[in-house]
Amino acid sequence: MKRLFVLPSICFVILLCGCADYREIDKGYLVTSIGISNQENTTSIFVEALSSSDVISKEITRVVLTETGKNLKEAYKNLQASLVKPLYLEQLGAVFLENTDITPLSEIKQLKLDVYVVKTNSAKALFEGETISGVLGYDVISLIKTQQKNTQNQLYKIQNKNQTLPTVDFLNGKMVLSWAKENDK
Fold first, then answer.
1. Given a cut of 50, is residue 45 above it in pLDDT?
2. Rounded to an integer, what distance in angstroms lies between the CA atom of residue 152 and that of residue 180?
3. How far apart are CA 24 and CA 101, in angstroms?
4. E strand segments, the chain
5. Cα–Cα dist 165/151, whole Å
6. Nearest-angstrom CA–CA distance, 101 and 19
């Protein structure tokens, strides 16, 4: 009697072990950095992503996606609605903030907690500029780690308004890192 119960139970458990939330990485955009800019009651979002081609002979390309809205939530929603592929945030390395603080980041539900948060004077200039490896998010992380004064930069470690955040900008065609207080604009 036990065998009659155990065998169907094992088969049922095996059938339940499928690929839940399975995603093919070539069917979406692998986001490496996000820029958020607040200008005159409009929020712009810039997303740097790596996208593979449907053609095998083509390599992965860097794309910069942009959208605007009244707030970050609306800009992000508009961006997702305009894309043919989904955004995958698992590879996100850095978030750039222009004229805003870290508060709106809670509106992006899939955001990783170990992402680096960086201030900038022009998110648009950063996303349009050329970096060493061609991937802005990873180049900024590398820059921070080589010139690091403060190891408390990850989002999950940023707790108060006195947190020191790095500022990254392009000056004379070169990416420059400096340190400023969170409440400085």
1. yes
2. 14
3. 34
4. 29-39, 42-51, 61-69, 87-88, 94-98, 116-119, 164-171, 174-181
5. 10
6. 38
For residue 56, pLDDT over 60 is answered with no
User: Tell me, what's the pLDDT at 100?
Assistant: 81
Q: Name the phi and psi angles at 139, rounded to 5.
A: -65, -35
Higher pLDDT, 76 or 163: 76
pLDDT at 160: 44
Low-confidence winner among 22-36, 64-78, 105-119 (lowest mean pLDDT): 105-119
Per DSSP (E only), the strands in 21-173 are 29-39, 42-51, 61-69, 87-88, 94-98, 116-119, 164-171
**pLDDT tens-digit series, residues 119-161:** 899 889 888 888 777 788 888 888 877 776 555 555 545 544 4
- Please state whether beta strands 87-88 and 29-39 pair in parallel, antiparallel, or not at all (unpaired): parallel
Nearest to 134 by CA among 61, 29, 65: 61
For 124, the token pair is 């648009």
- Assigned token pair, 132: 């060493």
Based on C-alpha coordinates, what's the Rg of the chain? 20
Under a CB-based contact definition with an 8 Å cutoff, are residues 123 and 19 in contact? no
